[in-house]
Each structure stands twice: as C-alpha cells, then as structure tokens.
Amino acid sequence: MSLPRRHFLAGTAAGGASVSGVFAAGAPQAAAAARGRTDKPFLELLTKAADKRVAEVVDGLDATLAQLNNLGQARPAARSLRLLTSVHVWADAEHHHDAALVAPMTRLADALAAAQFDDGLFDQGAVHSPPDTAFSIVDLGLLYGLLDDDDHPSTAKVRATLKKILRKAGSGLSTGGLHTPNHRWKVCAALARINSFWPDARYTRRIDAWLAEGIDQYEAGQYSERSATYAPIVTNPALLTLARLTDRPKLYDTVRRNLEATLHLVEPNGDVETVHSRRQDQKTVKHLSEYWLQYRALAIREKDGRFAAMAETVQRRGADQTFDETPLGDFLAEVLDEPELAAPLPKATAVPAEFTWHDKDSGLVRIGRGATRTSLFGGTDFPDVHAISSGLSTNPTFFKWRKGAAILDSLRLSPQFFSLGHFRAENVERTADGWRLWADVRAGYHLPLPPQHRRPDGRYPLTDDGRFWSAMDFPHRPKQWRTLHTEVRASEADGGWNLDVEVGESEVPLAFELCFRAGGTLSGVEPVPGQKDTYQLVKGYGTYTSGDDVITFGPGNGSGPRQPAVVDPGERYTWMGGDLPVSGLRVLITGRSPLAYRLTLR
Length: 602
Description:
Layout: H1 5-8, H2 28-34, H3 40-59, H4 61-71, H5 74-89, H6 102-115, H7 130-150, H8 156-173, H9 181-197, H10 201-211, H11 230-245, H12 250-263, E1 271-272, E2 286-287, H13 292-302, H14 305-319, H15 332-337, E3 354-359, E4 364-369, E5 372-377, H16 382-385, E6 399-403, E7 406-415, E8 427-430, E9 435-446, E10 463-464, E11 469-470, E12 479-493, E13 496-505, E14 509-516, E15 521-523, E16 526-527, E17 534-536, E18 542-546, E19 549-554, H17 571-574, E20 585-592, E21 595-601
Parallel strand pairs: 17-20
Antiparallel strand pairs: 1-2, 3-4, 4-5, 5-6, 6-7, 7-14, 8-9, 9-12, 10-11, 12-13, 13-21, 14-20, 15-18, 16-17, 18-19, 19-21
C-alpha cells in the first residue's frame, strides 16, 4: 500500500508506526495494514533536525534576501523557503502550522517573485540562466506541492505567489539553453514539476528533446562528469523525479547502476573517491551523505539489502549531526514529497569489502581488502587534450591508499622537464602481478622553417608548441625532440604495496610527493625549509601515524642540489600565478632521472 502525500502530511499516529489519515475513517483493516509502514526513527531524526534549523533560517533571513536582491542568488532563498515549508505542513513538527513562519515564508516568496525576470529566469552568477533557475524551480515546485496538499488558509498568498513564479519559469526553461551534462536533467526535472500541476505540451516536448540525447552514463555506472558532487546532488535526484513524474521506469535502472558503482568508491569512513572527477571535486574530499535518499529509495523499491546498508550508514552519521554538505533537516521536504521514502528499509546485507573494480572509461581502479582501500588512477584528460581547464580531469594523483585513520591521500610524481608539470598517466592496465601506469611526454627544439613556409616580412602566425604560444609558425618547423618516459608498476605485497618506478631517458631532477591526511604525525623525515607542512625523506623509512594506524614508507633517496626538494606544477599553472597543492602533510622523496626506484608502502 502506498502512502498518499496529502494524507501523509497529517503525521504519524501517536504511540504507533501507522500513518494517520492514510485510509478513510471507518476502515480498521486498512488502518491496521498501514501499521509498521513508516520508519519512525528515520522520520523523527529528520523532523528534529528540520525543526532545529528553523531558527537558523529565520535569523539569517535578511542575509539570504540580500544575496537574492544584490547578487541574484535565488537558490539559498528557495532552499530556505523549502525548509520552512516542510515544518509548516508536517504534523509531527514542532512548527506545524506555526503562524510565526508565515511572514518569513511570505517575504521569501515575494522576494523570489520580484527577482524573477520577465522571461521567467533568475540570475545565479550567470545572467538569465535557465539551468540555475531550474535548481530553484525544483525546490519551489516541491514545496508548492506540499503547500497545495496541506491547503492551510494561512499560506494562500504564498501559494498564489509561487504559482505565478512556476508558471512564468516554464516558458524560459522550455526554450532556454544550458552548459553542462547534469543541467539537462535538472531542467527536465523542473519542467516535470511544473507540468505535474499545469500540463503543457511545450514542457513535455522539451523534456523529450533533452532525454532523446541519451543519458551520459558509462558502462560501469558513472556519468560523464565522474563527480561525487553532481551525481548525488543533481543527476540522480533529477532522474528519480523524472522516473516518477513522467512514468519513465527505465530511469530507475540508470540511477541503480550509478549507486552500484558508488559502492566501490566509498571508503570505510564515508568518504567518496573523487580523484577521477571532471569537476571541482577532483581535489576535495566528498562524503556519502548526499547519496542518502537515493540509496534509501532504491533499497525500498528493489528490496536491495546493500543499498539499505548504505542508507543506514548515512543515517548513523546523521544521528551524530556529522553531515558535511546539505544540512540534515533539509532532507525532510523530500521525504514529505515522496512518502514512500519513509517506509522501513529492507534487511541490510553486506556491501563489497573484498573487490577489484576497474572502470575503464574513467581509468580508475579501486581495490578493497577488508579495512584497506586503494585507488590507482590513469584516466586524466590531459594526455588527449593537453589543457588545464574546468570540466577536464587533470588531477595528477595516481595512487591513494588507506587503512583506518592512516590515509595516504595522494601520491604524485613531478619531474622538472621543460616545465610540463606532473606525471599524468595515459592509462592503467592489468599485468600478471598488478597494475601498470605510464606516460610519454616530449618537448621540441624548433629548427629553421623550410623555404616554402618562410616570409620575408617575418610575420608568422601565433601558434602553440605544446608549452607556450609564439609568432613562430611552430607546426611547419622540423624539430629535435627531447622525451621523458615514465612507468609505474604497482603490486600488492605483505599487506601493502610495491611501486616500481622507471623514469628516463632525459636527465632531470624529480620529486615524489606523498601527501598524508592532516591530523597524523610523521617520523623519520626532515622539514623542508620555507615550505609549510612539507618534509623530505632523505634516507631509511618514514612513518605516518594516526591513532592506532601506521603507514611505513620509503626508502629515502638522498638529497642535494642536483635533486632539489621542489614540486613543479608546470608552466600552465605558474604562468597564471597558480599552484597545485594537496592539503595535509607532504613528504618529498627526490631523485634524478634516468631512475629506477621502488617505493614500498606497508
């Protein structure tokens, strides 16, 4: 039996787990059947967190409205209104039908209406932006449905204002463009919301057109952006909304495949691997919390115990208020919108703990051995496009390893070769005893132009030689090449890893950069003068200790002026005054090519 939203808002029955009002009065058998249909601890956790957020949202109302009025940022205002709406309509909330909330709700709705342009769009760091508008409209459509079902007289004016905003937005969203793959699905979800209230062929035609391009999902389940931010925050929720509101059940399969892939990306502490991402999160730590309701939805829908275990893991973190991105209370509105999410989870079963998972499309290998996790990455976009830019995977970290609290967040290799920057593997492949990563880079010395390309006036076109631009007509010049081949062979050994590295043939200084998670302690290493949290392993072995967990690494490879403790990010960064740091405790092991070196990790 489903849990109709209009009746679900009446709250859970006191002293039991049934949903009051789900079934018509005078139907005791149906009411009895509803008993046990809701997960009360789950609802209580969300309800308390949402009620607790009310004061924060109301106290910050002026700042939120200033963001909207001065900077065009509609999303914070829409999300604030969503939070206030959720506790206002939900009978189990302390703020249920709280008259004190009507004024701030009205202010937010009126301000959003005033900020909306005649074409129905908002600004959000981009002028008249359909995709940024869609983010706000998804929230406003959700809360409009809740207010409409609640039908309380005190919110009649808010509902009327929201109706105008939503209908006005439909025009801009059904004709406007966008920037990124995930924007397509968010715009579709926004149009589906509007269409669910006021059906319009313009909306469905636009949804059909975007979906006809195909979902950008790779065989292993990740989307083209390979992002632990945009998959759970944008793509998966949007596809689930479309599956539900436009009757496209195959989209559930798309989300399921992404969640199955994510099972192999999650660390025991709840971090999600991002080294392979094409978005901003490729150099940050992301957490599992944003996947919570997606795992819950598919666990209930498909009776998947693995997904139930993931949802329970996030809920345990939520009970300690350890969410890192979306505040815990903000999830309540989504559950009120889709009451099936409040059903009890199926029995949890074990998630993968012993696995080797190779996503060839992303060049990522993930290996689980009980409490340890390893990442090998050879899938940056750099070898193909030779560019550093938003939307590209360029993180040079090629190895990560952790056990418990001992976390090697990054291993990189930086040769000082024509200022071309870090080693970025061209691929990763299986070998008889482990894995192989490699890259070949080259730089040219340019010789005189052949006679047919010479110009007496010396006005040659401005061209790129792979490192910099110059008026030299580089493509037509013969060249003398200098090359650098790098190969890493990784094999498991004695509960850890051997990394055999060969670099040649050119003779250049280089540095291995091991970056450990902040909070631990290092021994056996020497501070590098003038570089904060940076050390050098000169000889023997070093240790990194965090709690009861220890990583031993080495050996050191000497030091001296011919192998300086320097990490060169490359001219693409330094020309712009940029750098490519990793946060944490950095240890450098230096050397000089040609080099054959074994790094051991235990």
